[in-house]
Amino acid sequence: MPDHDSSTLLSGQTKRRRVDIGVKRTVGSAIFARARENLIDGMNQSHSVDQDGDCSLVGDREKSNVLRKLLKRANSYEDSIMPFPGATIISQLLKNNMGKNGGSDSGFQGSGNLSSGGSEIQAEDGCSNSSRERDSPSDCLSPGPPLPPPPSSSSFRRQQPPSSHNSHAPSQPLSLSSFDLDRLSDEHLRAKRARVENIIRGMSHSPLVRPNAGDQDGNRDNENGSNNSDHRGDGNGHGISSNEHRRSDGASSILSSPGSRGGGVSAGEAYRENKRKQRLAQQQHSFTQLVCSRQEQRQEERRQLKLQLEDMQKQLRQLQEKFYQIYDSETEEEEENGENGESDRVREREEDGNLSEDSIRSDGLEERHRGRGRNGHDDLSELDPGLFLDRARALLREQALINGELEEDVDGREEEERNGERVMKRRGGAAGGRQLAETLKQELNCAVSQVVDTVVKGFSSPKQAVGHHIGCHTSTPAAPSSSSNSSSSCPPPFAPLPSLTPDSRFGSSALALSLNGDGSPTPNYHHSSNQRLHCFGDIIVPSPLDSFGGLSSRLSGMPTPNDQTEALPLVVRKSGGGGGGENGNLSSSLPPPAPHHPSLHPPLTASLGFSTPSFRHPFPLPLMGYPFQNPLGGGDGYPPGPKDHHRSSPDSMDMTRETVSLRTKMASLGGGHLSHHHHLHHRQSSPSQHGPEGLSLSLIKSECGDLQDMSDISPYSGSTIQEGLSPNHLKKAKLMFFYTRYPSSNMLKMFFSDVKFNRCITSQLIKWFSNFREFYYIQMEKFARQAINEGVAAVEELAVGRDSELFRALNMHYNKANDFEVPNRFLEVAQVTLREFFNAIVAGKDADPSWKKAIYKVICKLDSEVPEVFKSPNCLQELLHD
DNA sequence: ACGCGCCCTG
DNA sequence: CAGGGCGCGT
Question: Which one, out of A519, A680, A813, A824, has a CA that is 20 to 30 A from the CA of A169?
Fold first, then answer.
């Protein structure tokens, strides 16, 4: 896995570098361009760079996006309610929400926000909404006209105001859920509000509460410092922008240094509380009430989250102390070596501690969230720390079980904590810090992935998420005790909830991040690559996965790939290095949701070895929703159900008729062979490997899914219409290349009439010819240079005959079997091409970067008619027989 | 803005 | 051979 990671990283780096260098467009200042690139990368790719903050940040960003979406969708509703121009109002609301989420945390500063409706809020909003990549907090401070949230541009960008990210992130989920509340009646709102307030009041007495305003800066600085030092290693050129970016992002609230925490309820809190109440009283009528209530709720939620955060941090610190006590003596030496890796490890420990200990206290919040969740589709509630913690806890337990160091009982949270400590101690004593670190890494990975998963799921299917949320919460605690086999821990809870199953697919497979799942209502999502992106913006969130990857890689001591392109959305992780792995298979292999019985699990789980419960969810990945119609496979072609193992041997599939693309995708997915995908269960691969694979799957789905439904390919009909390209098609294309180097798409359609054309197929064919050309021209250039080197002085000396090396090379490539008689015309063209290259090189034109273009222009005119025979689906037989 | 083609990479 | 990025032409 390290190898893979490193390779990926390298490629990513190179790509990035290339991109950076290649960007000639003048987009303002280079810094801005960089920043945007980073942003986009962060959104769409891994942002391993700042893993520390990723957990929360990612979620935050995504949430913000989602919030916007929701708001947009709700426009109609809001309009009806509000007499004012809907857009303005909504944007205002949105801003307020966002401002509150981000701004209220800044303690006293926010005191004026509520009553005044505040310029501050708006300003902050403007900041975040404008999605300008700027690092100076001052921008946000300057009050200005409210900027309507630019949905398109901002969808991919982070919106956190630089000054408030700490608590901002956690609060987001709640705000989302609260949004749903809009649709509830006032009564509901009030009731809820009252409940929440009660809770908050209770919480407010917590000694851990503190005003964030003062701390944030300090914390951020600290975090930044650590981040910078950590990532310096992988800065590779874009360090500046990335660092800056990170700064603005801030570190994750969860992981942030606990050093400055503490203190009782701030005066600001109380003040704000009062303010809220006043406002409530004032706003008894009209939509303003709605708005205010929502705001209030958000604030409260935020506060809760903040409290939780504080708690977590404190716990983290405690845990850390314990940790150090136990291990420092042993690991000191290692730490002495102290490089980035070491520091990373330390942080990991912190994180881990955070997670495990946080879980201890998450109950109250969970309860609240659950309650709230029922009212609206607060899938978002899933996002809340409580859930996260819960899952983390479960993971921790799981890990303990895996290592056989955890006792069966883990009922009480204290118990749990103790167990964790015990485990640590034992490990420290026996295996040493290394093992512990490994365990922690795994745990962390799992937790992160789960969180991501949860977020995604929540976004993708809100309503279901509620149920899922509940199920998950309840299930996790109980699972470990029920059986040593953790695999059954999470799934069972879902079983009773039919509605959950659809999205649980994603949800459960932490690795499966794709939102495109069938369940998701995103209408446009399967359109084009572009839309793919949009999709992500809408629902999914690449970053979480990224963060996951980053974390995992980092934990493993490997640099994180910066350029993990779309791996995220997708999905299928087959095996997991982090222990999450194999689920991908399961998920992919499992058929939809029918409430599955635990009985089904045993075989699967057994092969899974150890993995977190969530990973074991045998839910099919969203991708599965797109049944790859395998004409021969009778429609169940691709996603093999869990039972596929027991089914007729996969080999029965007619691979020759399998579409090429499908095969390739499958290969990427299944680690190779469609027929052997069941072997995946036994494979152990690094998580990093899965990203790309999953990606390919998503690609298939998203790109091909939209094309005409493949369903109309009659599997049983004698008709040769295929939805994909077969190896024979490839061969045919190669032969066609002898006639035409630049076939038009129409031509391709004519000559591949036995293929059901869609964008996928078309582009694939075009790509084929592009690749053919590439090879062709490379050969030409090579031989031209060779001729020049050999002293050929005149082009006339150059000739391409069937016995020439050049021709042999070409023939070997396009007509390997040599069972096709290459037309003379091709020889002529080849000769012309060769000479063109020769002349150009001799003339020194090759100094020009685009010197080949002229040649291409010439060659593209030399295409000749492709014999009619090629139009026949059976042309190969006919041609080759000749 | 979109599609195409080249280039580079894996 | 496929992905992805980029530039160019429309």
Answer: A519
pLDDT in tens, A156-194: 223 332 233 333 333 333 333 333 334 334 445 555 555
Please report, for chain A, the start and end positions of each structural domain, with discontinuous segments joined by +: 727-879
Give the predicted TM-score (pTM) of the model. 0.32
Buried b (16+ CB within 10 A) or exposed e, A674-697: bbebbbbbebebbbbbbbbbbbbb
Asked if A358 and A391 touch (Cβ cutoff 8 Å), the reply is no
Q: Yes or no: say if A438 and A379 are a contact pair by the CB < 8 Å rule.
A: no
Q: Cβ(A475)–Cβ(A495) under 8 Å?
A: no
Q: What are the tokens at A795?
A: 């082009």
pLDDT in tens, A572-618: 222 333 333 233 332 333 222 222 222 222 222 222 222 232 322 32
Q: Which fold has domain A727-879?
A: Arc Repressor Mutant, subunit A (1.10.10)
Interatomic separation, CA of residue A825 and C1' of nucleotide C2, rounded (Å): 29
pLDDT at A101 over 60: no
CA distance A810 to A784: 14
Backbone CA torsion sign across A68, A73, A75, A78: negative
For A289, residues 6+ apart whose C-beta sits below 8 A from its C-beta are A186, A283
Strand C closer than 7 A to residue A660 Cβ: yes
**Residue nearest B9, CA–C1′ metric:** A11
> Helices A385-402 & A462-482, crossing angle to 10 degrees?
30
Q: Which residues pair with A755 in a beta bridge?
A: A722
Residue linked to tokens 């797109």: A626
Q: Is the CB of A565 under 7 A from strand C?
A: yes
Which residues are within 8 A (CB) of A116 and not within 5 positions of it... i.e. 6 or more apart? none
Q: What is the dihedral of CA A647, A653, A658, A664, to 10 degrees?
A: 60
